[in-house]
């Protein structure tokens, strides 16, 4: 995207510099009251020369790409090889590796080369003291010297502005939050699939010496970056795509053709298949099909196949979206109904709400081109409202006005009109749709029922989608306590709303669905191929039982959007953006998914938001979107051969929004080694974290939060101890040694423990339930940002930040560490964790900065509107910079933002409650019951030393986890092709 350069606005008067004594001490005290500890002052540490004022200078030159690899490196097999003596500790994106040749498949035009022998990894030691403790009077660990997540993210992002990511030449992907253009060379891009270990140990014993899980993080419909080729859609007619007759794997670049092309050997199970006559092509002397370059399925790691009728469960049609809108008293009184109607209009038509007055009166024989809409081509929309009754709406363009039909039977709910009249083309029926949504808030202004009913309305909506499948988008503003007995929800929290360590059993009750009606309904939805998205807000922040309501969205592959403290002027923009994204993103319905792997491995466990009826069965989802992610872990049922690669294939069968039944396949390949030390050089930190986080979130209802946090800490200690024991060189006992590519692993685990999903202390059960389900469904990039937010200092932006450089890339400012020690007096900061965007303003912020950012008249924090949700459009340099940065963070694929709409939340120091949210996101500091980053490393070091000396005792949570894993492994000992 191109950003226009704004003219400079002259020189600001320089703000007086503060000595940082009295005022910062006061700020320390204030932040301490919020549960934040900035850490003690560092003896002998020189204070940095900081600038807390906005200053405009002459624009600097364009940013230079990170020069870790020569310019022009591409995926043609001619990249320079790693030179002997090169820095083994350099970041993976700063290394140029030998192009990876598969050990099974000969590459055309390339010479066969011996497998690369990885060098032993070099650990990153941190001096922690002799016994992992900091004695009184001893020098503290310098926080600036511990591994920094912002630095690793910024380096990778800068490098991939100028370089393409070749999927077979790079063994290790960059951080998951890195925007990059991937070139598919046969193995899927990391946005679709990330392995925890990209050089796989050949046995269970070797994997055990790493302490790491062997897993795969999948996001099958991930959004493509601008500049990437579209995923090809291939049609093999009634025969369908070629598949292995034994394991049913789909054709992929690593299947080997022999016997002149007549035999196709499966790369997963090794079974030799006879090539179908319709798919036959001869091979050249090197064993490669002569038509290989003309067949995308033999070149690309990710592709889609159109499938014949034998893959259909019902006739595929375009997606049906059914909006189910709450019109009860709470929804009307708090403006939620109006916000939903306005948001749906914006999602359907954007800002173009003009209609032709004669739409309804026009002669039926006169053909009129449909009005444009933002609904995906081939899809249709329908509308229902509910309180104690259900209201269906016929908005067909042939009607002069929308027609309402009421159903009051809650015992046996049904659709009052046929699906043919309920679902319409949004462009053709724009006039009636706009009229309906504009009138709904006024229609129910006087007819207000305090208690809504939900399950009967959902059953009526499902009956309308029973024959086609599709998606329900439901809003709800209060606890549904009306209706038949089994369908009612009650105040299960008994007014407490929180699950704390004092009541360890309470979280098990409040965080799981115990209502049989909700469980039955989600099963019916999955069977019919229907997904459900919820847009929820509780009355005055009260109890809504998100655990039960959101269970439907979780199991059908849908999503829950929850507005904990709904405020109409503040949250409407976010609701509008999330409604638009929920409609317009790439998605499908009636989805089935299966993961296959090489001989010697088997699927052990899936984690995510889906339905799986029995172990080994396919994953079933009523709907799936570009934001949907899941993880799968593998166990060994034999020993892998080091002469062969390990292969993995995910296959997603789904119906697109346009009504095509397709299979999307993503293939991943990795080398096999008999030395786990080699594996440690190719660990994907983000994939490991995603696997552990999703498994932890999946087990919470059956395990207490305290046990879950302890098991994560125990797992982290095990990984570090195993690395120290088996794979690192000799280091003094006072050093904590970390694997090179897992330097920030400890900080991410600390962020997970401090997140709303797992943190100790009081937390509303509704919000915790939502966050736990979000963690299970997040992709690797979104999860990484959730566990460690991106913080940008906007008071010290360079004049070129926020504008395009000479290559057309937006120059993003460097982010700062999530610690109070890095917060400058008089500063202004954007804090983005992918779920919310906080704009924090120090009480001594420069008035000129406020005027430049918000406009004339806003020279004081008191004058700002706390419900502001977007920046005004001004002709100032700073305003243009910040707006460009916000647009890039919101719209750029690969930045870590998933389905959550970006709207700013103002947090003025000492004035707004949102400041507590800002303080909570400073994950490197002590807050609540969790320690600071430095103290956390000290604690881990102590645990590692105790483990190495045999003095560490396993916690009950860790022992329980081991038993569970053992049982899971035994239960999973079934043929992987079942």
UniProtKB/TrEMBL annotation:
Membrane topology field: Peripheral membrane protein
Chain ranges of the Sec23/Sec24 beta-sandwich domain: 588-672
Residue ranges of every copy of the Gelsolin-like domain listed in the record: 811-883
Residue stretches of biased makeup (Basic residues): 44-53
InterPro entries found in the cross-reference section: ADF-H/Gelsolin-like_dom_sf, Beta-sandwich_Sec23_24, Gelsolin-like_dom, Gelsolin-like_dom_sf, Sec23/24_helical_dom, Sec23/24_helical_dom_sf, Sec23/24_trunk_dom, SEC23_SEC24_subfamily
UniProt GO cellular component terms: COPII vesicle coat; endoplasmic reticulum exit site; endoplasmic reticulum membrane; Golgi membrane
Major localisation: membrane
Its job: Component of the coat protein complex II (COPII) which promotes the formation of transport vesicles from the endoplasmic reticulum (ER). The coat has two main functions, the physical deformation of the endoplasmic reticulum membrane into vesicles and the selection of cargo molecules.
Signal sequence interval, chain numbering: none
Organism: Pseudocercospora fuligena
Protein name per its UniProtKB record: Beta-sandwich domain of Sec23/24
Keyword Ubl conjugation: no
Pfam families: Gelsolin, Sec23_BS, Sec23_helical, Sec23_trunk, zf-Sec23_Sec24
Biased composition (Low complexity): 1-42, 58-73, 83-118
UniProt superkingdom: Eukaryota
The Sec23/Sec24 trunk domain, residue ranges: 320-581
All copies of domain Zinc finger Sec23/Sec24-type, residue ranges: 241-279
Region (Disordered): 1-118, 358-378
């Amino acid at each position: 995207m191109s950003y226009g350069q704004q003219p400079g606005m002259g020189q600001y008067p320089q703000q007086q510099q503060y000595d940082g004594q009295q005022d910062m001490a006061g700020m320390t005290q204030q932040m301490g009251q919020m549960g934040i500890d900035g850490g003690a002052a560092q003896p002998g540490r020189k204070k940095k020369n900081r600038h807390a004022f906005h200053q405009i200078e002459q624009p600097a030159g364009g940013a230079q790409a990170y020069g870790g690899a020569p310019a022009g490196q591409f995926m043609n097999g001619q990249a320079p090889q790693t030179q002997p003596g090169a820095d083994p500790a350099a970041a993976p994106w700063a290394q140029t590796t030998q192009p990876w040749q598969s050990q099974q498949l000969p590459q055309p035009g390339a010479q066969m080369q011996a497998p690369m022998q990885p060098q032993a990894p070099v650990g990153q030691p941190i001096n922690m003291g002799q016994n992992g403790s900091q004695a009184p009077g001893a020098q503290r660990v310098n926080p600036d010297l511990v591994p920094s997540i912002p630095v690793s993210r910024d380096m990778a992002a800068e490098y991939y502005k100028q370089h393409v990511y070749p999927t077979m030449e790079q063994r290790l992907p960059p951080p998951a939050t890195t925007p990059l253009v991937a070139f598919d060379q046969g193995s899927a891009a990391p946005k679709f699939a990330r392995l925890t270990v990209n050089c796989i140990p050949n046995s269970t014993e070797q994997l055990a010496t790493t302490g790491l899980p062997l897993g795969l993080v999948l996001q099958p419909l991930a959004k493509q970056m601008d500049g990437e080729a579209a995923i090809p859609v291939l049609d093999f007619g009634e025969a369908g795509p070629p598949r292995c007759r034994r394991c049913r794997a789909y054709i992929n670049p690593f299947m080997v053709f022999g016997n002149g092309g007549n035999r196709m050997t499966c790369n997963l199970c090794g079974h030799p298949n006879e090539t179908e006559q319709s798919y036959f092509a001869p091979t050249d002397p090197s064993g490669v099909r002569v038509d290989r370059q003309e067949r995308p399925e033999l070149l690309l790691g990710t592709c889609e196949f159109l499938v014949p009728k034998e893959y259909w469960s019902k006739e595929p049609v375009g997606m049906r979206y059914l909006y189910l809108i709450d019109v009860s008293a709470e929804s009307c009184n708090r403006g939620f109904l109006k916000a939903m109607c306005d948001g749906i209009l914006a999602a359907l038509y954007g800002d173009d709400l003009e209609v032709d007055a004669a739409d309804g009166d026009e002669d039926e024989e006169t053909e009129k081109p449909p009005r444009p809409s933002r609904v995906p081509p081939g899809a249709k929309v329908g509308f229902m409202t509910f309180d104690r009754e259900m209201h269906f709406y016929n908005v067909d363009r042939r009607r002069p006005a929308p027609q309402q039909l009421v159903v009051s039977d809650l015992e046996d709910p049904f659709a009052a009109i046929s699906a043919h009249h309920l679902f319409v083309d949004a462009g053709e029926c724009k006039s009636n749709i706009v009229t309906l949504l504009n009138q709904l808030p006024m229609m129910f202004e006087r007819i207000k029922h305090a208690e809504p009913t939900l399950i009967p309305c959902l059953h009526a909506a499902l009956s309308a989608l029973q024959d086609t499948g599709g998606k329900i988008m439901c809003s709800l503003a209060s606890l549904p306590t009306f209706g038949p007995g089994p369908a009612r929800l009650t105040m299960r929290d008994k007014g407490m709303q929180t699950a704390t360590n004092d009541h360890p059993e309470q979280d098990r009750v409040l965080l799981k669905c115990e209502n049989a009606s909700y469980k039955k309904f989600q099963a019916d939805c999955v069977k019919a191929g229907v997904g459900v998205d919820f847009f929820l807000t509780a009355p005055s922040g009260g109890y809504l039982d998100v655990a039960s309501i959101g269970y439907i969205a979780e199991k059908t592959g849908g999503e829950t959007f929850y507005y904990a403290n709904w405020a109409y002027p503040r949250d409407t923009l976010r609701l509008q953006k999330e409604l638009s994204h929920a409609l317009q993103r790439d998605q499908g319905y009636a989805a089935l998914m299966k993961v296959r792997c090489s001989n010697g491995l088997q699927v052990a466990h899936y984690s995510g938001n889906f339905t799986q009826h029995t172990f080994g069965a396919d994953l079933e989802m009523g709907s799936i979107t570009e934001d949907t992610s899941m993880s799968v872990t593998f166990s060994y049922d034999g020993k892998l051969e080091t002469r062969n690669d390990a292969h993995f294939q995910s296959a997603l069968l789904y119906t697109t929004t346009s009504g095509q039944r397709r299979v999307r396949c993503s293939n991943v390949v990795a080398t096999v080694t008999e030395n786990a030390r080699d594996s440690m050089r190719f660990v994907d930190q983000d994939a490991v974290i995603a696997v552990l986080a999703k498994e932890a979130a999946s087990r919470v209802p059956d395990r207490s939060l305290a046990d879950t946090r302890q098991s994560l800490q125990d797992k982290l200690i095990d990984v570090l101890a195993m690395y120290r024991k088996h794979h690192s060189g000799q280091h003094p006992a006072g050093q904590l040694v970390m694997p090179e590519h897992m330097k920030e692993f400890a900080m991410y685990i600390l962020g997970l423990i401090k997140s709303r999903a797992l943190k100790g202390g009081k937390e509303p059960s509704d919000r915790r339930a939502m966050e736990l389900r979000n963690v299970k469904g997040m992709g690797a990039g979104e999860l990484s940002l959730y566990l460690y937010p991106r913080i940008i200092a906007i008071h010290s932006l360079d004049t070129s930040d926020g504008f395009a450089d000479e290559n057309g890339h937006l120059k993003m400012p460097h982010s700062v560490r999530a610690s109070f020690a890095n917060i400058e007096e008089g500063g202004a900061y954007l804090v983005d964790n992918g779920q919310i965007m906080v704009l924090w303003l120090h009480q001594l912020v420069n008035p000129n900065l406020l005027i430049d950012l918000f406009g004339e008249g806003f020279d004081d924090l008191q004058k700002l509107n706390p419900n502001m949700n977007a920046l005004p459009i001004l002709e100032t340099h700073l305003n243009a910079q910040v707006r460009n940065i916000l647009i890039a963070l919101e719209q750029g694929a690969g930045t870590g933002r998933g389905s959550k709409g970006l709207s700013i939340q103002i947090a003025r120091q000492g004035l707004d409650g949102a400041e507590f949210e800002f303080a909570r996101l400073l994950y490197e500091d002590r807050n609540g019951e969790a320690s600071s980053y430095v103290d956390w490393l000290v604690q881990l070091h102590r645990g590692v030393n105790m483990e190495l000396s045999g003095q560490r005792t396993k916690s009950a949570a860790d022992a329980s986890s081991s038993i569970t894993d053992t049982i899971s492994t035994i239960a999973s000992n079934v043929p992987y092709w079942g």
